[in-house]
Amino acid sequence: MMKNKAIMICAMSAMLLTGCTKSNILASGGPAEPVFETQKGIELDWTQINTDIDEEFVDNEQYPMALSVNYSLDKEKKTIDMTLMVKHGTTPEQAVEFADAAVKFLNDEVATQDFSYERSSDKSFGGFFKEYDLNLIVMPDYTMKEKQYWLVDMQIPKGSDQTIVPKEGAQIMETTAADEEEDTDTEETEEGNETNETDETTQSAPSK
């Protein structure tokens, strides 16, 4: 009888151990699955977003009119103010192109850090602007108090995906001699840098 009890105790112990083992060891043999669940409490790195925006638009041949992208965020009111500075002589059409690209780029930078936000598309500014109202201005440099020269001035409600359009009656600020001189100096500096780089390459090349 004692022998039978001992056998039963051993069998029960084995079953318990087997159950514990199965409940704690993960199945092996396959790659780990990435987690695509929405993560709460993600803090966006706005410093990185600022850097990426500058790299995208400042001194970019695709947006030669662009000078800077400036914005401020109000998390409580769920609003974002964006002011884009452009060169004198920028047309309303160029301003709209720049503004549309900048708004969507900012959204996509946010979506890159927090994938709970949808990315922008041809018909949408993206998920970030479904939560934030957008106050958008595009103006030539040094015209903060001269609204007649503002090229875009819009309030876009969140989620509306309202098309960006030029400001009605906007006047194009013609380029001045100082503007043209500045552009010429910039081009000469870039050409000089390219020449110096070529000279350095030639000097460092091994002789045959």
Short description:
The protein has 208 residues and is an alpha+beta fold.
> What's the number of helices?
4
Which consecutive residue ranges, at least 5 long each, have pLDDT under 50? 15-39, 200-208
The geometry reads as globular
- Helix fraction? 40-55%
Secondary-structure element string: HHEEHEEH
> Which strand order spans the largest sheet, edge to edge or round the barrel?
1-2-3-4
Radius of gyration: 30 Å
Q: Calculate the mean pLDDT score and round it.
A: 78
Largest sheet: 4 strands, mixed
Structural class: alpha+beta
Task: Report the span from N to C terminus.
Answer: 99 Å
Number of strands: 4
How much of the sequence lies in strands comes to 5-15%
Q: Would you kindly provide a written description of the structure presented here, covering whatever features stand out?
A:
By secondary structure, the chain is an alpha+beta fold. The protein is built from four helices and four strands, in the order H-H-E-E-H-E-E-H. Helix 2 (46-57) packs antiparallel against helix 3. Mean pLDDT is 78; it is low at 15-39 and 200-208.
Describe the secondary-structure layout:
Layout: H1 2-24, H2 46-57, E1 66-74, E2 79-86, H3 92-113, E3 133-140, E4 152-156, H4 177-204
Parallel strand pairs: 2-3
Antiparallel strand pairs: 1-2, 3-4
Helix pairs in contact: 2-3
